[in-house]
Amino acid sequence: MGIMLYNTLTRQKEAFQPMSGSEVKMYVCGPTVYNYIHIGNARPAIVFDMVRKYLEYRGYNVHYVSNFTDVDDKIIKAANELGEEVPRLAERFIEAYFEDTGALGVDKADLHPRVTETMPEIISFIKALIDKGYAYEADGDVYFSTRSFSGYGKLSSQSIQDLQLGARIEPGEKKKNALDFALWKSSKEGEIAWESPWGSGRPGWHIECSAMVKKYLGETIDIHAGGQDLAFPHHENEMAQSEALNEQEMARYWMHNGYIQIDNEKMSKSLGNFVLVHDIIQKHSPEVIRFFMLQAHYRSPLNFNEELLESAKNSLERIQTTVNNLKHRRRESADFGEAGRWKETASKHLQRFIREMDDDFNSANGITVLFDLIKTANLYLEEKQTSKEVLTSFLDTIREIGSALDIKVETSEGMLDEEIEALMEERVQARKSRNFARADEIRDHLKEQGIILEDTPQGTRWKREQS
RNA sequence: GGCGGUAUAGCCAAGUGGUAAGGCACGGGUCUGCAAAACCCUUAUUCCCCGGUUCGAAUCCGGGUACCGCCUCCA
């Protein structure tokens, strides 16, 4: 049946059908780089990375572009406060972004265009909008005239009249209509600026994405994604600009992820509950954070706090433990019993996983299937005789699902050093001679070093304790 | 005021007409030299409330309530 996805534009699930065969053009709005990213920024990074990887898993070739807003009011403000040059500050936080999202298992996009490197395209985009009568200059600023674009409001399903009520004109703005928005802003004395036909200034916020999408992916793309709050005004405005100029649909599918809350409250500076990824990964492993995020559907609101992370850690460990136990059993057991009724089990689970994920990237249900498989594998491990073939099918399937979601289903084994191996051997002898005091002493000693021993009918297995 | 989202066990979270997935935590049991891991049992007669439609609703309709978000360059 193929992939179904929820399209914000039509407010329903639709069959996913890219424009050209298996090629998918996907654009995700990236961060404004003036600080470390917080946990709310991490969600779109993670969920759309998941979407991308799942599409690839399903055989699509994804062209993935995500921008950096590396010049805007907030960056200028932050730079002033720190007494740092804008480009240096932006560069610093771009590096931090890659570091943080990389830890969370987010792959780099194929391209990460920056505003400052897209200036010629932005300027000609604006010029073309003025020429077509969709934008006007006012004293060095350029505004998009929302009234001139008939489709304005269709993404957020609001009428111009309703929007008008909430809109206002800030002091100093020279727009004709409160709903108009800046394409180009003239610079103040001493501010970082670029030359343009309207004098020196910098781009407005929304125009960069329109220019970048067109430059790097084309006039129409398949998927345009971002946080829910970007739907209005950011995406609405992007869409208006692009469709006014190109006279064709900007994106076929619009995807928006739900918000993250901290203890059921909005994360905001005034509440002082900002959680930076940079900080939280000092205390909780980034793999757990990714797993936690994917345990909820991407469009649902998601509450975040450390207890929830702790619980997610235990859940993930259940998977890792089973993988470890499967590996141990396959290694230690000389059994090659009949596969029997277990033979098809893993592949059936894999089919279920695909069915769930095909339904609007429901990673929550995908992970449930993984747990069902874990349960089945654990039951199989209770059998006296196990077949290597079945053990391998369980292991391979768990790994396949793990890699489709890019969650960490197995812990790194590392090498045991000689001292530890010697102690384990000594303990085997101690247990044989029923010297349990010594055996327990060794087990406790190793536990202090993060090595956990478990005795099974197939011998002693070990695993490293997770941080 | 306009637009939108969410309300399911102690906690998290699936489930859009067919009789409540899964995970975490808790309790009991099996296994074990003891543990650990695992398995088994137990844990929501019920899905925010009130009406309605239906043979049948957490799921559809009407009306409420609560919380959250957007309309303020905040993902």
From TrEMBL:
GO cellular component: cytosol
Positions of short motif 'KMSKS' region: 266-270
Domain Cysteinyl-tRNA synthetase class Ia DALR: 352-416
GO molecular function, one term: ATP binding
Residues the record lists as binding ATP: K269
Gene3D superfamilies assigned: Cysteine-tRNA ligase, C-terminal anti-codon recognition domain, HUPs
Coiled coil: 302-329
Localization: Cytoplasm
Keywords, alphabetical: Aminoacyl-tRNA synthetase, ATP-binding, Coiled coil, Cytoplasm, Ligase, Metal-binding, Nucleotide-binding, Phosphoprotein, Protein biosynthesis, Zinc
Catalytic activity from the UniProt record: tRNA(Cys) + L-cysteine + ATP = L-cysteinyl-tRNA(Cys) + AMP + diphosphate
Modified residues (Phosphoserine): S270
UniProt cofactor(s): Zn(2+)
Keyword Nucleotide-binding included in the entry's annotation: yes
One of the Pfam families matching this protein, by short name: CysS_C
Domain of life: Bacteria
Subunit structure: Monomer.
Protein name from the UniProt record: Cysteine--tRNA ligase
Species of the source: Salibacterium qingdaonense
Gene name for this UniProt entry: cysS
